[in-house]
Amino acid sequence: MQRTIATFMVAASLASVAGAQTSPPPAIPAATTSSQATPAFSLDAALGAAGMPSAGTPVSGTTNGGSATGPAGSTQPALPSIGAATANVAAATAARRVAGLRPNPEFQTQVENIGGSGAYRGVRSSETTVGVALPLELGGKRPARVALATARLTRAQIQAEVARADLRLRVTQLYIEAAATERRFEVLAEQAGIANNAFRVSSERVKAGDVSPIEQQRADVLRINAQVAADSATRQAQAARANLGTLLNTAVMGPLDRAWFERIDGYGPQRSVDIEGTLALVAAQADVRTADAQVRVARSLRVPDLTVSAFARRLAATNDTAAVVGLSIPLPFFNNGSAFVAQSQAEQTQAQALRSLAIVDTRQQIASAQTEVANAAATARAAGGPGLAAAQEAARIARIGWSQGKFDQIALLDAERTLSQTRQTYVDALAAYHDAQARLDRLTTPAPTISGDER
Predict the structure, then answer these.
(1) E strand or H helix that includes residue 395
(2) Which ranges in 113-266 belong to alpha helices (H)?
(3) Could you tell me if 167 and 79 are in contact, meaning their C-beta atoms sit under 8 angstroms apart?
(4) Which of 10, 143, 264, 410 is the most buried (most CB within 10 A)?
(5) Lateral strand order in the sheet of 320-328
């Protein structure tokens, strides 16, 4: 009779645990499909909290430095990285205005032949000269300065887009981490519940004399280890959610979007990517244009500037007035500007080499990311499909066989361990897939059109 009761308790307990969901701690909202439940905090919501448009929102084709806020119509202030990039654009815009200004004229005055001796005592023989000196820039210095400032402004605008793309990637990765850690917590918490129940059943079977006490001790060790793993997963999930909230500067409320996390898009071969229009290549090309403009400035500085002056001189001795005209030009004996030209040309060569390197690096990174996406997607489909179904069926059979005394405890524990590992592999593959996809999207982010007419 005792064996019959114990067998019934084993079957009922394990069946209930197999279908039960362990409740998450208060800091981790439970995922639910009820229409009355709190709406899921989606990735689009996280990007919106960061002032970034959602994946389906088109990005404006022209960038400018006039705003440090989020998308159009949003009152969300920009995060520090976006604020810094926007301030850099504003500074480059002001620098371009400065570059287009002409040199200021100079007002000059001087008094001669005063405070001497004899006829030059006092101011009786003084000569007062008053006039204006106007520097004249030669060699195309002003257009060269404007071209350099314009190139730097373009680079600052591209850098602002790079900062937005980097922020999108960072938010996405933190969201993936938070979603993955919460799914791992659910798996480990369920495993801890199964281990707790297995320990209780083992204790009952030992009392009934069906098994040796070693099974109870083994189940107790597994119960303790499973609980430690579940507690660790809880802390990791709470930390990941807190990190996401810290970056967004807002509380992350509600469950995360499990449907998005478990969705795998795309089948077939990877599409080819034209890297010429990506942010990385456009930024490298902007650096080349800036270096070209710097060479132009350096060459223009080799042409000396003229300073034209016109004065009126009053002679106190005769009370007459005379005109004085002056012209000055520097003599480039010691610094003729050739060293600055050589420096600028070397920097130009460096920028061109870095652009070629960026082409190679971007192609390699895109190819690697595409491979990671494909591999992670295949692993997730296998682990979450036939692999998970087979592990669940094996665990179900092992539970029934153990409860009926047909399988030993080792077979049951091995089946439960395989099921837990398969679930964790599935979660890890999903996290790796979304992370690789996010990095691929960042690498292939198209650069917006930078309009020079609005400058």
Answers:
(1) helix 386-403
(2) 141-208, 213-248, 258-261
(3) yes
(4) 10
(5) 106-112, 127-136, 306-315, 320-328
What's the Cα-to-Cα distance from 303 to each of 103, 330, 347, rounded to whole Å?
16, 10, 21
Tens digit of pLDDT for each residue in 153-202?
999 999 999 999 999 999 999 999 999 999 999 888 888 888 887 777 77
Closest CA to 47 of 302, 248, 224, 187: 248
Tokens of 428: 């890890």
Beta-bridge partners for 309: 133, 326
Structure tokens at 113: 């032949």
What confidence score (pLDDT) does residue 269 get?
A: 61
Residues of the chain with pLDDT under 70: 1-38, 53-78, 210-211, 266-271, 402-403, 405, 407-409, 451-455
Task: Give the angle 238-242-245 at the CA atoms, nearest 5°.
Answer: 145
DSSP percent split of the chain into helix, strand, coil, nearest 5: 60, 10, 30
pLDDT digits (tens, 9 = 90+) for 211-256: 677 877 877 888 898 889 889 989 999 999 999 999 988 888 888 9
pTM: 0.79
Distance of CA 183 to the CA centre of its chain: 24
Nearest to 176 by CA among 406, 35, 380: 380
The tokens describing 317, both together, are 């001795």
Angle, helix 213-248 to helix 409-443, in steps of 10 degrees: 20
By the 10 Å C-beta count (0-12 exposed, 13-18 middle, 19+ buried), 280 is classed as: buried
> Residue holding tokens 């000059």?
108
Rg for the chain (alpha carbons), in Å? 38
As to burial, measured by CB atoms within 10 angstroms (0-12 exposed, 13-18 middle, 19+ buried), residue 265 is exposed
Q: The tokens 């665990």 sit on which residue?
A: 395
Provide the residue type at 394 as one letter.
A
Inter-residue contact 99 to 149 (CB < 8 Å) = yes
For residue 154, the model assigns a pLDDT of 94
Give the pLDDT confidence score for residue 29 in this predicted structure: 57
